[in-house]
Specification:
It is a single chain. Helices cover 59% and strands 8% of the residues. By secondary structure, the protein is of the alpha/beta class. The longest helix has 58 residues. The chain is elongated. The chain starts with a helix and ends in a 16-residue tail after the last helix. One of its GO terms (biological process) is DNA synthesis involved in DNA repair. InterPro entries: P-loop_NTPase, Rad50/SbcC_AAA. This is AAA family ATPase.
Length: 848
Amino acid sequence: MNDMELKIGSLVLNNFLEVESKSSAGGARANKISTLIVNSGKSVLPYVDSKAEASSTKPKIKRLSKLKVKGFRGFNEPQEFDLSKRFTFIYGLNGTGKSSFCEALEYSLTGKVNEASSKRFEPSQYVNNNSSSKGAVSLTVEFDDGKLAPAIKDPLENEFVFIERTRIEAFARVSSYSPQGQQQRLSTLFGLEEFNNFCSGFNKTIEHNLPIPPIKKKELEEKEKEIEKSKLIVENKNLEIKGYGTRKDSLLLKYPNKKLISELLTILESDTDGLIIKKKNEIEKLSKIVLKPVDKTQEFLNTLIGLNQQFSMFNTLAHEVKKYRDEINFIDLYSAVKKISSSPMDCCPACDTPISKVTTNPFTKAETQLKILEEISAKQKSLNEKKKNISESLIKLSSELKTVDISTSLTLNNFNPEYESIKLNLEKKISEWGKWNYENKEAFEKVESHKKELKSLEADYRECSTITELYKAAYKEKSKAEKIISEFNTANKDLIAKVEEEKKEISHYLRYSEAYKSFINKLKLYSEGLPLKLAKSLDEKVVELYNAINKHPYNHEVLESINLPTKPNDGIKIKYLDGTTEDALRVLSEGHLRCLGLSILLAKNIHDSHNVIIFDDVVNAIDDEHRAGIINELFSNTLLSEKQMILTTHGEDFIKRLENQLLSKGLNKKLSRYDFLRNHDSRELLIEPNLNRHYLVKADNNFKKGLIKDGLMECRRALEELAPRLWKKMRTEGLDPALSLKLRAPLTSPDLYNLIDGLIGYIVQIEKSPGIINFSKHRECLMKIKDVSKKNQVTWNLLNKGTHEEDRDEEFDENQAKELFELCLEFEGLIKNYSREEFKIDTTITAS
């Protein structure tokens, strides 16, 4: 950005809260920024970017502590929930109030409820219990500074603390929404909603809000109308003078040594050594050698020869006319006869002889002779015209011949006798004069060249004189007009000074106006580019989480990369390890799409460094196939397992599996448990705390209550849950634990005893070769259980008899049961405290 844009940045940042609170409506933000420019625009310094980002002043939630609700959604009576522990698991069948609990948390943390918006309810209307006019909810949280305080309702900060079905589907199917819906979800996903709202709150321009109108200038312009004519004269004369200057420069280019028109006039017009007089003298000197008119003489010869040809044709025509001269005398007679023939006649009009008896019909003869006489008459007319033309041409030629020193007076009568003489004379002159001209050709060319140069010099002299006079006239008129303007300027000196100062002010504000336009354009481009940058930061984590939840073994099912949409109408593009690229919405199944939505939400929660994650009945959104992957990822991925987790579910098996992921030792310090029970008598929520489903916790509680059989049953269930986990952990380490197991009957699964026996055998095998001792403690613990069982199978009988219902002659031995329970606790600790460190290989061990 340039300095002016950085100054705009400083003004906005220094007054951020005031600017951010204004929107573009009614030009409110433009007015605010314009006011800042007027007040501080001259003193503000360009913004200097700091390498260290300013840390947020907002406190961040470290964990939730306590929730109190009354008259909120399904809660009628006051209820209090202890949320201070690392985990809070809530189980309840559909319709028992789990969503009301999560919505109370959502309302406390974000100030809204997504479900209310989707159903077009106002939050205040949606959250109230049917029997309560006003609901109350209070959430106490611990912030990262260690202080306990009521939660701050911040939808932008806390949106991705929550994971539930609607959110999962919304982000999995983001590309299927309208452009407006996509934009809203993308802004939320990338945490840009607040920033985009801020960026869109700028007006396009602040030009009309700044004091730009030139008030003083307009005042001066009104007065300047009085001298408008003088200004126009000055302007026009300046243009004229500029044009004369161009003409002067063009003229002086011919005379490199001269810089001034006056100098050029002197060298051109001097009577003694001026260029013009010198050139005239040279021409006069050379003009004594006269160029003979050879071309003109040739033209006269050609004319003479042409007249001779015409004279011959004239004589021929005269001879023809002369032959018919006697016939012409009868023309009147023939005409009279022809007139008589127009009346019926039987006799000759001359002798009265009957027509039938005459030798030649006089009327026919008269008509024939008249045609002949008409032709003769035409020739006579042409003869007269030729005579006249030839006579005139002879007179003209006689006059022209005098210019070449031939004196004659040609007529029709003397042309033939004079022709040859004149012709010879002309031919002689042409020959002699041609020779003369050739011999003096150089002198003649010099004369012509000098004449052209003289003409050019005279033209330059006239141009010099013209420019000089025009300059004088223009300067005179200009000076006169400038005097009028000067007198006006003196009378309006103060106003003119204010106009100049106003120009600087306007220029200052116009620079700010242009800087503002470029500033918001760059801000817009930056805002549009942010989703792409932020998407890249999420893409990798989404792929990692998606693959971890799905656990696909084939390259065409495992994701290599994902491109989240960065603008409306973009799709979610996925690429598999086999190189195939697809649109996620097109190829993924419903279950996989929801896993993708969950992965996006988890990745966003990790990216935003939230310390809390709240699941609202996630089982509703995820199918059975992927629940094991989710459980494993929540407890094995350190980016998730270190967060405070609050989870509700209607899945009884799911909640049991979740609890058994935790170590039984000190479980009550880490886990708060609530069961929402079905109330068959009223709509009031029934909530039972601390109904743990952890096998070993339940076993311990039963032993303490003297319920030995029930305690043994839970111990067996614990071993049935822990033994397969050991098998999975060995596979996770890259081993290939293919166990040899005995089956008691066809189509049956391996029983627990044979599974433990197979695990011990496999661990013994890898300890010998290649010497992997990571699981030695696990083997030793299992062998203790197995060793005890060999004493008349007492321990194993305890497990079996405690599980299966049968009549017994003797009671269970409490000490034996306690011994088995301690072994189960030891085995649980080995499984759940196992860390994936490098293999420990004892190189002293060799295969036997």
